[in-house]
């Protein structure tokens, strides 16, 4: 998740992140603008959502030169970056006792 620096258009950040879709290692990769309809907070401007078969696929994705190219474009124009990686095998899929 990313927020834009003041004066930066969200589409500019989305365009810089869209380079990531050219990397072949993700099973699914989406770069979307936040709809900003949450009642409590809307600081996030752009969301990156990806799914990977395994840790090796994620590592290969992050090692691709296009990943660094996207960082080089987006880092100077973004304010906040929040990332979370998790294994779906360890995710809660029902209420925990």
Q: Can you offer a commentary on this structure?
A:
The chain has 97 residues and is an alpha+beta fold. The protein has one domain: Alpha-Beta Plaits (2-Layer Sandwich), CATH 3.30.70.100. Helix content is 29%, strand content 20%. It has 3 helices and 4 strands; from the N terminus they run E-H-E-E-H-H-E. Helix 1 packs antiparallel against helix 3. The chain is flat, with a radius of gyration of 15 Å. It starts with a strand and ends in a 16-residue tail after the last strand.
Overall spatial form: flat
Instruction: Please summarize the sheet with the most strands.
Output: 2 strands, antiparallel
Q: Outline the low-pLDDT stretches.
A: none
Kindly state the percentage of residues in helix: 25-40%
Q: How much is the radius of gyration in Å?
A: 15 Å
Integer count of domains: 1
Backbone structural class? alpha+beta
How do the helices and strands line up, and which of them pair or pack?
Layout: E1 2-4, H1 10-18, E2 28-33, E3 46-51, H2 55-63, H3 65-74, E4 78-81
Antiparallel strand pairs: 1-4, 2-3
Helix pairs in contact: 1-3
Brief digest:
This protein is α+β, with helices and mostly antiparallel strands and 97 residues long. It has helices at residues 10-18, 55-63, 65-74; strands spanning 2-4, 28-33, 46-51, 78-81. Strands 1-4 form a two-stranded antiparallel sheet. The chain has a two-stranded antiparallel ribbon with strand order 2-3.
